[in-house]
Amino acid sequence: MAIKVAAIIGSNRKESYNLKLVKYMKDRYAEQLDIEIVSINDVEMFSADTEENPPKGAMDFKIKVRNADAVLFAVPEYNFSIPGALKNAIDWMSRSGHDMKDKPTFIVGSSMGVLGSVRAQMHLREIISNPTLQPKLLPNNEVYIGAIHTKMNEQNELTDEGTIGFLDSVVNNFVEFYNKIK
Ligand code: FNR
C-alpha cells in the first residue's frame, strides 16, 4: 500500500515550481506514495498566546501533518534560508502536539538559480533537528534542483533525464528507509 505523505509546499506562490515539482511527484510515484499537497497559505502567524488553541488555518495544517504516515518538504530559498511563511508553519508544528515527532521525512527543493535551494535545505535540516520537531529524516539523498524553469515542459513535467533518475532513486531510498523504521 502507498505511504500517505503530507507534502508541505514551502512557497505560497500560485505558480510555484516547488508546488509543480510535488504535483509531478504525486503522479509519477503514485504506486509508492499517496501524496497530499499541504499548503501553508492559510496558516496564521504563530503566537505563543494561542499555541494551545490554534486558529483554524494552523489547526487544519497541523492535523493534516499529524494524520500522515510521512512528510515531504518541497522548499525554495529566500535570502539564503527558508521562506518566512514556511518557518511560521514549522513553528506551529513544534508546539501542542509536536506533529512531526518521529515522522519519516524527506526533503526536495528547487529554484531558478543554479544552487537549487541548497542553503535553504541546510537551514531546514538544522531547524527540524530541534527536539520539539525531530522527525526521522532520511539521511543523505539531498535533492537540489537548480534552474528548474529549464527542466520542466509546459505540462509542468520534469524533462531532464538526470534529475528524473536521481529523484526515482531518492524515492526508492525513502520507501526502503520508511519500511525499515516503521
Ligand atoms: C528569492 N530567490 C532566491 N533564490 C536563491 O537561489 N537564493 C536566494 O537567496 C533567493 N532569495 C529570494 C528571496 C525572495 C524574497 C524571493 C521572492 C526569491 C528566488 C527563489 O528561490 C525562486 O524564485 C524560486 O523559484 C521560488 O520558489 P517557488 O515559488 O517557485 O517554489
The outline comes out as: globular
What top-tier CATH class fits best?
Answer: Alpha Beta
Structural class: alpha/beta
Helix content: 25-40%
Report on the structure:
The protein has 182 residues and is of the alpha/beta class. It is built from five helices and six strands, in the order βαβαβαβαββα. The chain has helices at residues 17-28, 56-67, 84-93, 118-128, 161-181, and strands at residues 3-9, 33-38, 70-74, 104-110, 136-137, 143-145. Strands 1, 2, 3, 4, 5 and 6 form a six-stranded parallel sheet that branches. The protein is globular and about 50 Å long. 37% of the residues are buried. Ligand FNR binds next to helix 1.
Properties at a glance:
single chain; 182 residues; alpha/beta; Rossmann fold; six-stranded parallel β-sheet; 5 helices; 6 strands; 16% strand; binds ligand FNR; oxidoreductase activity; Flavoprotein-like_sf; NAD(P)H-dep_reductase; FMN binding
Topology at a glance:
Elements: E1 3-9, H1 17-28, E2 33-38, H2 56-67, E3 70-74, H3 84-93, E4 104-110, H4 118-128, E5 136-137, E6 143-145, H5 161-181
Parallel strand pairs: 1-2, 1-3, 3-4, 4-5, 4-6
Bound molecules: ligand FNR.
Protein name: NAD(P)H-dependent oxidoreductase
GO cellular component, one term: cytosol
Family: Belongs to the azoreductase type 2 family.
Short note summarizing the structure:
The protein has 182 residues and is of the alpha/beta class. It has helices at residues 17-28, 56-67, 84-93, 118-128, 161-181, and strands at residues 3-9, 33-38, 70-74, 104-110, 136-137, 143-145.
